[in-house]
Design goal:
Layout: H1 6-10, E1 41-42, H2 48-53, E2 63-66, E3 73-78, E4 84-89, H3 103-112, H4 116-144
Parallel strand pairs: 1-2
Antiparallel strand pairs: 2-3, 3-4
């Protein structure tokens, strides 16, 4: 920083200021925690089959392999038994939105129903009941004989 008024007080002589000592720079191997976690291992791939042949870190960390077409993400991890585990993540299809019926909608649907089939079933059930009663009565009369 330059100060033009400094020369007025001290004249044209340079000020004798102590200069900072230059220390020899030492390189220290300081472990930087968490730096490796800032990035994900892996790369984009064309297909899942390619993931099977790719090398992964031997420390057991997960490597991520998104498909180029965006349809899935595969992960690959070295397991403790020495095998590798591949997991495939695919997006879920969105569920259809729920539509609620009003009373008017229900009434319209009921009007469209054909109850003639139900009436036919009622008649058939009544006929079966009559036949069962007749059979029961015949069995009673045979026991009495």
């Amino acid at each position: 920083m330059y100060n033009p008024y400094l020369n007025q007080y001290y004249g044209t002589q340079q000020m004798n200021r102590p200069q900072p000592m230059e220390l020899p720079q030492q390189t220290q191997n300081v472990p930087q925690m968490g730096l490796n976690r800032a990035f994900l291992n892996g790369k984009q791939v064309e297909s899942i089959d390619i993931v099977k042949n790719l090398e992964i870190p031997l420390d057991g960390s997960i490597s991520y392999f998104p498909l180029v077409n965006g349809t899935a993400i595969a992960t690959k991890q070295l397991m403790q038994d020495g095998t590798s585990k591949i997991t495939i993540y695919e997006p879920k299809a969105e569920k259809e939105s729920v539509k609620y019926a009003t009373i008017d909608d229900i009434d319209k649907k009921i009007e469209k129903l054909d109850f003639s089939e139900i009436d036919d079933l009622k008649e058939e059930i009544n006929d079966l009941k009559k036949e069962l009663k007749e059979l029961k009565n015949k069995l009673k009369t045979k026991k009495e004989d």
